[in-house]
Amino acid sequence: MNELLFAFGNLRSEVMVITMTKPTLPPFHQKIFTHAKSAKVATDIYLTKNNPFRPLRPLREQSAFTLIELLAVITIIGILAGLTLGAAGAVRRHGANSTAKAEVAALQAACDRFFADNNSYPNNSAVNPSSSFAPTGYTAAGQALFTNLVGSATLTAAPTTKRYLEPKPAMVYTNGTPNYFVDPWGYAYGYNSDGTNAPLIWSTAGQTTGGANTNKWITTWPKM
Question: Per the confidence metrics, is the pTM higher than 0.70?
Fold first, then answer.
């Protein structure tokens, strides 16, 4: 009996010890530090650039061009545009010169075929390159050349005589009768022949005023 009471007394003591024991709580400042650390992590995540829920961003984080950068870009664009336009103009001038040379050669060959059949060239000496420079005055001579080589007064009319040249539509001025041949600059080709001597055919290469600078002309005669 005594042993049972002794054992019960020990068990009771242990139960009381277990019941009265409380868990050890961390100090108050440790709780504050833990909460502050969690709040800092949340704030960092919220302010992340890739966060879609952030309503506003600090101005220092927004990328923008400075005035110097904008001026540099504008200057570079201007330089490139000038180079491109200059190159495009040179290409157009070269293309027009090549086209005029080919057309002058075609007109010369057509006149040679005309001479082979008729023993004479289309006759018109109203203008010549030494006394008449303005291509606006070449119309009558151009019309005489056109009617003789094409065999009709207009490009679309049926020829009444042999046709010695089949010109492209871009080579013919059709807003008048008779039509006449025009160069790539839209001016009439100059033509001069007395019917016996080989004809002179030329384009002023777009020149209309300022004196006859024949070095730029496209001609059937060799340049000096």
Answer: no
